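Input/output pair, single chain:
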Amino acid sequence: MKMNAFTRSSRFWTFQLLIGLSLVGTLAGSCTRGNGEVEKGILHVWHRDDVKSFDPATAYDGISLDVAPSILESLFQYEYLNDTHHVVPLIASDMPTFSKNRLTLTIRIRPGIHFQDDPCFKETQGKGREVTAHDFIYAFKRLALPSIQSQGWWIFDGKVVGINKFHDRLTNSTKKDIPLVFDEPIEGLKALDNHTLQIKLTKPYPQLLYILAMTFTAPVPYEAVRMYGDENGNITNNPVGTGPFRLKSWQRGRKVVLEKNPNYHAEFYPTDGAVQFRKNGFMNDAGKQIPFLDQVVAEVIKEQQPAWLNFMKSKIDILLLPKDNYAQAITNNTNLSPELASKGIRLNIETGTTFWYISFNMKDKLLGSNKYLRQAISSAINRENWIETFTNGTGRKAVTVLPPGTPDRPAHSQIKYDFDIKRAKELLKKAGYPGGQGLPVINFDLRGADTLSRQLGDFFTHQLDVIGVKLNVILNTFPAYLEKAKQGNLAMSYAGWQMDYPDAENAYQLLYGPNKAPGPNDSNFDHPLMNKLYDQMAILESGKARSEIIKKMDEILQEDCPWALGYYMASYELVQPWVQNYRIADLIQNKYKFIRINKEVKKRYLGLR
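Output:
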C-alpha cells in the first residue's frame, strides 16, 4: 500500500514528523471537548494530509486506507487479537473451498448483509439492499476499467481466467462501447447463485486469501456508480459499503467524520486472543456486538508539533510519536517517561511491515539509463545518519526489500551499495560525471510540503552534494505526489511502502515490469530476468525453492539499484488512557470497529466528574 502506504508505491503517511505551530490556534478551537461529547463516544485521530479516495478501486494510500476499510468491507479480514496474520471470514460465511488442483475456489457469502442506506437505492427509497455475489464481480471488473486507472489491477492481472481478455477489450473499446463490453461475462468469475461466488484461476495463487481481505475487493453496488459516476470521480466522495461506519462528512483538507452505521450486520468482538492481549485487558468486551464508537473524527494536521500539543491537551486520542518529542516521551528506548505515565498514557511499540527507500524512475532519460549513477547515489547516502536523524535511531537499516519476519527473506548483513563516499565518487566518474561535472540537476520529489519534508530535502541535498550531485527538491501535497507516481512522472523520489500482506510477492510486485505506472511499480523497473523469477516465485508456497528464487531477485535489485534501500520503520504510538482495545497492526486496517472510548475514565482524567 502506498504510504504506504505512503500507494502501499508507496503506501506511507504514518511517520511524518516535526515542527510547525501555525495550526495550533485553529485546532484548539475546533477540538474543544465537553461532557456532552464524551457521552457520544468519539475517537479523535489525525492525518498529515487529505484522504485521496473512498472508491475501493482507487483507495491505495495509507491515509485513505486508515478510514476507508471501516466503510468498505471485504470477504475476509485479519483476526484482530491474533499475534500472527490469520485470515478469517467477514462478508464470507466461511473459508473458501478449493478444487483438487486449487485453481477453482468457491466462496459462500453471508445472507442478510446489506449495503449502507444511500439515496442511490431508489427502488427501496434509500434503504440499502442485500449484497450478492454479483456485487463482488462488479467490483472486480471495475479494477480493469481504463478510465479509473486502478492501482489494484495487479491483484487479478494474469491470474483469473478470462480477465485479461476482458481488460484488453475494455482498453481497445470506444467510450461508447465500454458499457456494453463491461457487461460481458468473464469465464473465471461466476455467481453460482446470489450467495455463492466462484473464482477460476489461471495458475496457483497462494496469496489469494490475503488479496480477498484487501479493500480493492470490497463489493460495489452498481446503483452507486450509476448515480455518482466513475469518470468524474464522485463515487470517490460517496462511498457505499457494508461496514460498521459510514461517511458523515468530508471537509477537504480539514477533516473526515465517520459515524456508526445504524444498520450494520451482526458482528462481535473476539472471544479469544493471544496471550499478550489477554494479559493486557483486551478481553473485557469479549463477545459484545461491535462497533462501540459513535464517531471517528480524523483531522488533517500537516505538522507533527501541533498534533503533539493537541494530544497533550487530550484533543487527539492516538498519536504517532514525533521525533522532536522522543526524548521527552521515552526513557531507555522502550519506557514511557514518568510525566506521561502519570497521565495514564500508554506506549505501543511495533516493528511493522513499513519500509522507506529512494526510488529512481527507470523511464527517466538520465537516471534510468545509467546504472552507475544510481549506484553512486546509493553509495553516497549515510543510512545511519538518516535513521538517527529522522527516527531517533528506532528504525532498522533495510538490507533487502523484505522486512524482518517475512517468510523466505534473504539473509544479509549489508547492502551492496551502502554508504561509501570513495566508492560513490568512483561510480559517479564511471557514470560519466567526474565530480558531478556535466551532470544535470536531478528532480527529487517528496510526498509532503511540511517541515519534515523540507528537512528530508535538506538532508539528501547535503548528502549528495558531497559527491557533486545536485538536487532540485520538489515539495508536494500527498495526493499530488500519488498522482505523479500514478502517471509515471517522478524522476527520483522519497518512497515508502506498507505491505498489504505478509508475503514476499507483495514487496517484489513493486519491481515487476507489468506493474509499471499506473500500477504500483512507479519506479518502472522492467528487468526480463526479474520478471521471470517473479512469475516463478509468485505461484510457489513458502519454502526452500521459493527462498532460492527470492535470493536471485534480491541480487538483481542490489546490482541494478532501481531503489536505494533505506530502513524498516518501528512505530511508537501514544494512546490516551480512555482508549480501549487498540493495538498497532499495519495489516489490520478495519481497526476502529474494535475500539471503545471508556467514558468514565475519560471524564475522570478530564476532570468532568
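The CA atoms of residues 54 and 238 lie 7 Å apart. The chain has 22 helices and 21 strands.
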